Amino acid sequence: MSEYPYDRAALRAHLHELEQVPGVAKPDPILTVDRIVRRFGGITAVDVAHLEVQRGAITALIGPNGAGKTTFFNLITGFDRPSNAARLIGGGDARWSFNGKTLTRTGASQAARAGMVRTFQLTKALGRMTVLENMLIGANDQPGENLFVGLFKPLWARRERENIERAEELLTRFKLDAKKSDLAGELSGGQKKLLEMARALMSRPAMIMLDEPMAGVNPALTQSLLEHIQALRDEGTTVLFVEHDMHMVRHVSDWVVVMAQGEVIAEGLPESVMSSRAVVDAYLGAHHDRDLGDNEVLTTGVIRAIAEEVEEEEAR
Ligand SMILES: Nc1ncnc2c1ncn2[C@@H]1O[C@H](COP(=O)(O)OP(=O)(O)OP(=O)(O)O)[C@@H](O)[C@H]1O
Protein backbone atom coordinates (compact mmCIF):
# COMPACT_ATOMS: atom_id res chain seq x y z
CA MET A 1 0.00 0.00 0.00
CA SER A 2 1.93 2.97 -1.23
CA GLU A 3 -0.80 5.17 -2.61
CA TYR A 4 -1.45 8.40 -0.77
CA PRO A 5 -3.49 10.15 0.66
CA TYR A 6 -4.43 7.91 3.51
CA ASP A 7 -7.42 8.40 5.55
CA ARG A 8 -5.98 9.32 8.92
CA ALA A 9 -8.33 7.06 10.84
CA ALA A 10 -7.39 4.15 8.55
CA LEU A 11 -3.69 4.83 9.04
CA ARG A 12 -4.14 4.93 12.80
CA ALA A 13 -6.10 1.68 12.66
CA HIS A 14 -3.13 0.09 10.85
CA LEU A 15 -0.75 1.42 13.47
CA HIS A 16 -3.02 0.07 16.21
CA GLU A 17 -2.56 -3.42 14.85
CA LEU A 18 1.22 -3.28 15.03
CA GLU A 19 3.28 -4.96 17.69
CA GLN A 20 4.63 -2.17 19.88
CA VAL A 21 8.27 -3.25 19.91
CA PRO A 22 11.46 -1.49 18.78
CA GLY A 23 12.13 -2.04 15.08
CA VAL A 24 8.59 -3.20 14.24
CA ALA A 25 7.85 -3.30 10.50
CA LYS A 26 5.41 -0.63 9.28
CA PRO A 27 2.74 -1.11 6.60
CA ASP A 28 4.44 1.35 4.23
CA PRO A 29 7.75 2.74 5.52
CA ILE A 30 9.12 5.88 3.88
CA LEU A 31 12.39 5.60 5.83
CA THR A 32 14.07 2.34 6.75
CA VAL A 33 17.24 2.33 8.82
CA ASP A 34 19.41 -0.71 9.39
CA ARG A 35 22.26 -0.67 11.83
CA ILE A 36 23.50 2.86 12.10
CA VAL A 37 26.19 3.59 14.66
CA ARG A 38 27.92 6.85 15.61
CA ARG A 39 30.64 7.02 18.21
CA PHE A 40 32.35 10.13 19.52
CA GLY A 41 35.54 8.94 21.24
CA GLY A 42 34.34 6.50 23.87
CA ILE A 43 30.69 7.58 23.66
CA THR A 44 28.25 5.66 21.50
CA ALA A 45 25.84 8.45 20.59
CA VAL A 46 23.70 6.36 18.21
CA ASP A 47 23.33 2.61 17.83
CA VAL A 48 20.05 1.92 16.05
CA ALA A 49 19.58 -1.69 14.91
CA HIS A 50 16.43 -1.22 12.82
CA LEU A 51 13.83 1.49 12.51
CA GLU A 52 10.99 2.12 10.08
CA VAL A 53 9.10 5.38 9.78
CA GLN A 54 5.57 5.10 8.42
CA ARG A 55 4.74 7.15 5.34
CA GLY A 56 2.11 9.79 5.92
CA ALA A 57 2.29 9.59 9.71
CA ILE A 58 3.48 12.09 12.29
CA THR A 59 6.19 10.30 14.23
CA ALA A 60 7.69 11.79 17.40
CA LEU A 61 11.22 10.90 18.44
CA ILE A 62 11.59 11.40 22.16
CA GLY A 63 14.20 10.62 24.80
CA PRO A 64 16.24 12.30 27.50
CA ASN A 65 19.03 14.79 26.85
CA GLY A 66 21.96 13.09 25.18
CA ALA A 67 19.84 10.14 23.95
CA GLY A 68 21.19 10.61 20.43
CA LYS A 69 18.14 12.11 18.72
CA THR A 70 19.91 15.02 17.02
CA THR A 71 22.85 12.86 16.03
CA PHE A 72 20.41 10.38 14.49
CA PHE A 73 18.81 13.22 12.48
CA ASN A 74 22.26 14.35 11.34
CA LEU A 75 23.19 10.84 10.22
CA ILE A 76 20.17 10.05 8.12
CA THR A 77 20.12 13.47 6.48
CA GLY A 78 23.79 13.17 5.49
CA PHE A 79 25.08 15.94 7.79
CA ASP A 80 27.16 13.42 9.71
CA ARG A 81 28.60 10.03 8.79
CA PRO A 82 28.07 6.83 10.74
CA SER A 83 31.11 5.20 12.39
CA ASN A 84 30.11 2.05 10.49
CA ALA A 85 29.64 3.87 7.17
CA ALA A 86 29.54 1.77 4.03
CA ARG A 87 32.29 2.70 1.57
CA LEU A 88 32.73 2.16 -2.12
CA ILE A 89 34.85 -0.86 -1.39
CA GLY A 90 34.13 -2.68 1.83
CA GLY A 91 33.50 -0.53 4.88
CA GLY A 92 30.79 -0.85 7.48
CA ASP A 93 27.27 -2.18 7.43
CA ALA A 94 25.23 1.00 7.99
CA ARG A 95 22.24 1.04 5.63
CA TRP A 96 19.29 3.32 5.25
CA SER A 97 16.90 4.11 2.49
CA PHE A 98 14.34 6.79 1.93
CA ASN A 99 11.39 6.58 -0.43
CA GLY A 100 12.93 3.53 -2.09
CA LYS A 101 16.33 5.23 -2.59
CA THR A 102 19.43 4.01 -0.79
CA LEU A 103 21.12 6.97 0.88
CA THR A 104 23.97 5.14 2.52
CA ARG A 105 26.78 6.96 0.72
CA THR A 106 25.06 10.17 -0.24
CA GLY A 107 25.56 13.59 1.29
CA ALA A 108 23.19 16.19 2.65
CA SER A 109 22.14 17.77 -0.63
CA GLN A 110 21.28 14.39 -2.18
CA ALA A 111 19.23 13.47 0.88
CA ALA A 112 17.34 16.75 0.49
CA ARG A 113 16.82 16.10 -3.21
CA ALA A 114 15.46 12.66 -2.36
CA GLY A 115 12.79 14.51 -0.38
CA MET A 116 14.05 14.36 3.20
CA VAL A 117 14.42 17.88 4.55
CA ARG A 118 15.16 19.03 8.07
CA THR A 119 14.68 22.38 9.71
CA PHE A 120 17.63 24.44 10.83
CA GLN A 121 17.90 27.01 13.50
CA LEU A 122 18.45 30.51 12.22
CA THR A 123 22.17 31.12 12.45
CA LYS A 124 23.58 34.63 12.91
CA ALA A 125 24.36 34.86 9.21
CA LEU A 126 20.82 33.89 8.21
CA GLY A 127 19.49 36.37 10.76
CA ARG A 128 21.14 39.17 8.78
CA MET A 129 19.22 38.18 5.66
CA THR A 130 15.60 39.06 5.01
CA VAL A 131 12.77 36.62 5.59
CA LEU A 132 12.26 36.24 1.83
CA GLU A 133 15.98 35.62 1.21
CA ASN A 134 15.90 32.92 3.87
CA MET A 135 13.04 31.26 2.04
CA LEU A 136 14.89 31.29 -1.27
CA ILE A 137 17.83 29.50 0.34
CA GLY A 138 15.41 26.67 1.09
CA ALA A 139 14.72 26.03 -2.60
CA ASN A 140 16.92 23.13 -3.63
CA ASP A 141 16.75 23.98 -7.30
CA GLN A 142 18.51 27.30 -7.16
CA PRO A 143 19.82 28.21 -10.60
CA GLY A 144 23.43 28.39 -9.45
CA GLU A 145 23.31 24.74 -8.45
CA ASN A 146 22.39 23.53 -11.88
CA LEU A 147 24.90 24.16 -14.66
CA PHE A 148 22.37 23.62 -17.44
CA VAL A 149 19.82 26.01 -16.01
CA GLY A 150 22.58 28.45 -15.06
CA LEU A 151 23.69 28.66 -18.70
CA PHE A 152 20.32 29.80 -19.97
CA LYS A 153 19.22 33.09 -18.55
CA PRO A 154 15.50 32.77 -19.43
CA LEU A 155 15.30 29.41 -17.63
CA TRP A 156 17.22 30.85 -14.73
CA ALA A 157 14.85 33.79 -14.44
CA ARG A 158 11.79 31.53 -14.64
CA ARG A 159 13.08 29.30 -11.88
CA GLU A 160 13.75 32.31 -9.73
CA ARG A 161 10.27 33.68 -10.33
CA GLU A 162 8.72 30.34 -9.43
CA ASN A 163 10.77 30.18 -6.26
CA ILE A 164 9.68 33.67 -5.25
CA GLU A 165 6.04 32.75 -5.89
CA ARG A 166 6.36 29.60 -3.81
CA ALA A 167 8.09 31.56 -1.03
CA GLU A 168 5.36 34.18 -0.97
CA GLU A 169 2.65 31.52 -0.91
CA LEU A 170 4.29 29.81 2.07
CA LEU A 171 4.91 33.09 3.89
CA THR A 172 1.21 33.89 3.55
CA ARG A 173 0.27 30.45 4.84
CA PHE A 174 2.56 30.91 7.86
CA LYS A 175 1.36 34.50 8.39
CA LEU A 176 4.81 35.91 7.75
CA ASP A 177 4.00 37.71 4.51
CA ALA A 178 3.98 41.13 6.16
CA LYS A 179 7.51 40.41 7.41
CA LYS A 180 9.07 39.30 4.15
CA SER A 181 11.40 42.30 3.87
CA ASP A 182 12.34 42.31 7.57
CA LEU A 183 15.60 40.82 8.76
CA ALA A 184 14.99 37.26 9.92
CA GLY A 185 17.00 37.93 13.08
CA GLU A 186 14.39 40.49 14.17
CA LEU A 187 11.49 38.00 14.22
CA SER A 188 10.13 36.75 17.55
CA GLY A 189 11.16 33.28 18.75
CA GLY A 190 7.91 31.73 17.53
CA GLN A 191 8.04 33.48 14.16
CA LYS A 192 11.59 32.15 13.68
CA LYS A 193 10.23 28.63 14.22
CA LEU A 194 7.53 29.27 11.62
CA LEU A 195 10.14 30.56 9.19
CA GLU A 196 12.32 27.48 9.74
CA MET A 197 9.35 25.28 8.90
CA ALA A 198 8.29 27.36 5.92
CA ARG A 199 11.85 27.35 4.53
CA ALA A 200 12.06 23.56 4.78
CA LEU A 201 8.86 23.34 2.71
CA MET A 202 10.29 25.29 -0.21
CA SER A 203 11.47 22.10 -1.88
CA ARG A 204 8.15 20.26 -1.31
CA PRO A 205 9.74 17.47 0.75
CA ALA A 206 8.17 14.02 1.11
CA MET A 207 9.28 14.06 4.74
CA ILE A 208 9.98 17.04 6.94
CA MET A 209 12.14 16.58 10.02
CA LEU A 210 11.62 19.08 12.81
CA ASP A 211 14.12 19.40 15.65
CA GLU A 212 12.27 20.70 18.71
CA PRO A 213 9.72 22.81 16.83
CA MET A 214 8.21 24.09 20.09
CA ALA A 215 11.38 25.14 21.88
CA GLY A 216 11.05 28.75 23.04
CA VAL A 217 7.61 29.23 21.48
CA ASN A 218 4.91 31.09 23.43
CA PRO A 219 1.54 29.38 24.03
CA ALA A 220 -0.28 31.48 21.41
CA LEU A 221 2.03 30.29 18.65
CA THR A 222 2.21 26.72 19.96
CA GLN A 223 -1.33 26.09 18.80
CA SER A 224 -0.60 27.56 15.40
CA LEU A 225 2.52 25.36 15.01
CA LEU A 226 0.51 22.29 15.98
CA GLU A 227 -2.08 23.12 13.35
CA HIS A 228 0.56 23.64 10.69
CA ILE A 229 2.12 20.26 11.46
CA GLN A 230 -1.24 18.52 11.25
CA ALA A 231 -2.07 20.31 8.02
CA LEU A 232 1.22 19.16 6.49
CA ARG A 233 0.43 15.61 7.39
CA ASP A 234 -3.07 15.92 5.97
CA GLU A 235 -1.55 17.06 2.67
CA GLY A 236 0.59 13.93 2.52
CA THR A 237 3.89 15.11 4.01
CA THR A 238 5.43 12.62 6.43
CA VAL A 239 6.55 14.35 9.62
CA LEU A 240 9.34 13.18 11.94
CA PHE A 241 10.04 15.43 14.89
CA VAL A 242 12.19 15.55 18.00
CA GLU A 243 10.42 17.18 20.91
CA HIS A 244 10.68 17.51 24.67
CA ASP A 245 7.24 19.06 25.02
CA MET A 246 5.07 16.10 25.99
CA HIS A 247 1.86 18.03 25.38
CA MET A 248 2.79 18.36 21.76
CA VAL A 249 3.95 14.74 21.45
CA ARG A 250 0.78 13.44 22.95
CA HIS A 251 -1.58 15.59 20.92
CA VAL A 252 -0.06 15.60 17.51
CA SER A 253 1.78 12.33 16.91
CA ASP A 254 0.47 9.10 15.41
CA TRP A 255 3.45 7.09 16.61
CA VAL A 256 6.20 7.62 19.17
CA VAL A 257 9.76 6.30 19.04
CA VAL A 258 11.75 6.43 22.28
CA MET A 259 15.53 6.64 22.26
CA ALA A 260 17.86 6.27 25.23
CA GLN A 261 21.64 6.00 25.19
CA GLY A 262 21.68 5.87 21.42
CA GLU A 263 19.25 2.98 21.04
CA VAL A 264 15.58 2.77 20.17
CA ILE A 265 14.22 1.26 23.35
CA ALA A 266 10.48 1.53 22.71
CA GLU A 267 8.01 2.55 20.06
CA GLY A 268 4.26 2.57 19.86
CA LEU A 269 1.07 4.59 19.98
CA PRO A 270 1.44 7.80 21.98
CA GLU A 271 -1.21 6.84 24.49
CA SER A 272 0.37 3.50 25.33
CA VAL A 273 4.01 4.59 25.22
CA MET A 274 3.43 7.71 27.28
CA SER A 275 0.61 6.78 29.58
CA SER A 276 1.72 3.39 30.78
CA ARG A 277 1.51 2.86 34.51
CA ALA A 278 5.25 2.33 34.72
CA VAL A 279 5.84 5.73 33.15
CA VAL A 280 3.40 7.47 35.45
CA ASP A 281 5.00 5.73 38.44
CA ALA A 282 8.50 6.60 37.40
CA TYR A 283 7.54 10.20 36.69
CA LEU A 284 5.62 10.96 39.76
CA GLY A 285 6.91 8.59 42.39
CA ALA A 286 4.26 8.59 45.10
CA HIS A 287 1.98 11.18 43.45
CA HIS A 288 -0.33 8.77 41.70
CA ASP A 289 -3.22 11.18 41.59
CA ARG A 290 -1.67 13.24 38.82
CA ASP A 291 -1.37 12.62 35.13
CA LEU A 292 1.95 12.99 33.37
CA GLY A 293 3.01 16.62 33.32
CA ASP A 294 2.67 18.06 29.88
CA ASN A 295 5.99 19.80 29.80
CA GLU A 296 8.10 17.28 31.62
CA VAL A 297 11.32 16.09 30.09
CA LEU A 298 11.60 12.33 30.21
CA THR A 299 14.41 11.05 32.38
CA THR A 300 16.45 7.93 31.65
CA GLY A 301 14.65 6.14 34.50
CA VAL A 302 11.31 6.83 32.89
CA ILE A 303 12.53 5.70 29.52
CA ARG A 304 13.78 2.41 30.94
CA ALA A 305 10.43 1.99 32.66
CA ILE A 306 8.65 2.47 29.35
CA ALA A 307 10.82 -0.21 27.79
CA GLU A 308 10.11 -2.66 30.61
CA GLU A 309 6.40 -1.96 30.37
CA VAL A 310 6.41 -2.69 26.66
CA GLU A 311 8.37 -5.90 27.21
CA GLU A 312 5.98 -7.02 29.94
CA GLU A 313 3.00 -6.40 27.71
CA GLU A 314 4.68 -8.43 25.02
CA ALA A 315 5.31 -11.32 27.39
CA ARG A 316 1.65 -11.37 28.47
N1 LIG B 1 30.10 16.51 17.81
C1 LIG B 1 30.10 15.79 18.94
N2 LIG B 1 31.26 15.51 19.57
C2 LIG B 1 31.27 14.76 20.70
N3 LIG B 1 30.19 14.24 21.28
C3 LIG B 1 29.00 14.49 20.69
C4 LIG B 1 28.89 15.27 19.50
N4 LIG B 1 27.58 15.35 19.15
C5 LIG B 1 26.90 14.65 20.08
N5 LIG B 1 27.75 14.13 21.00
C6 LIG B 1 27.37 13.28 22.14
O1 LIG B 1 26.52 12.26 21.67
C7 LIG B 1 25.46 12.01 22.59
C8 LIG B 1 24.12 12.21 21.91
O2 LIG B 1 23.91 13.61 21.69
P1 LIG B 1 22.66 14.20 20.92
O3 LIG B 1 22.84 15.67 20.86
O4 LIG B 1 22.47 13.47 19.65
O5 LIG B 1 21.47 13.84 21.92
P2 LIG B 1 19.97 14.39 21.92
O6 LIG B 1 19.12 13.22 22.22
O7 LIG B 1 19.70 15.14 20.69
O8 LIG B 1 19.99 15.35 23.19
P3 LIG B 1 19.17 16.72 23.45
O9 LIG B 1 17.77 16.29 23.74
O10 LIG B 1 19.85 17.28 24.64
O11 LIG B 1 19.30 17.58 22.24
C9 LIG B 1 25.72 12.94 23.77
O12 LIG B 1 26.42 12.20 24.75
C10 LIG B 1 26.55 14.02 23.17
O13 LIG B 1 27.38 14.61 24.17
Q: If helices are DSSP runs of H or I spanning 4 or more residues, what is the number of helices?
A: 13
Q: How are the strands of the largest sheet arranged?
A: 6-7-8-3-9-10
| Oligomeric state of the chains present here | single chain
- Small molecules (ligands, ions, cofactors) in the structure: adenosine-5'-triphosphate
Silhouette: globular
N/C terminus separation: 31 Å
Domain ABC transporter: 31-286
Keywords: ATP-binding, Nucleotide-binding, Transport
Pfam families: ABC_tran (PF00005), BCA_ABC_TP_C (PF12399)
GO cellular component, one term: plasma membrane
Q: Brief overview, please?
A:
With 316 residues, this protein is an alpha/beta fold.
Give a structural overview:
- The protein is α/β, with parallel strands linked by helices.
- The protein contains 13 helices and ten strands.
- Strand 1 and strand 2 form a beta hairpin.
- The chain is globular and about 60 Å long.
- Adenosine-5'-triphosphate (ATP) is lined by residues 40, 43, 45, 63, 65-71.
- It comes from Leucobacter weissii.
- One of its GO terms (molecular function) is ATP binding.
- One of its GO terms (cellular component) is plasma membrane.
- Keywords: ATP-binding, Nucleotide-binding, Transport.
List the helices and strands and how they pair.
Elements: H1 8-17, E1 29-40, E2 43-54, E3 58-62, H2 69-76, E4 95-98, E5 101-102, H3 108-113, E6 116-118, H4 124-127, H5 131-137, H6 147-151, H7 153-173, H8 189-200, E7 207-211, H9 219-234, E8 238-242, H10 246-252, E9 255-260, E10 263-268, H11 270-274, H12 277-284, H13 300-315
Parallel strand pairs: 3-8, 3-9, 6-7, 7-8
Antiparallel strand pairs: 1-2, 1-4, 4-5, 9-10
This protein binds adenosine-5'-triphosphate.
Adenosine-5'-triphosphate (ATP) is lined by residues 40, 43, 45, 63, 65-71.
Pfam families: ABC_tran, BCA_ABC_TP_C
GO molecular function: ATP binding; ATP hydrolysis activity
Domain ABC transporter: 31-286
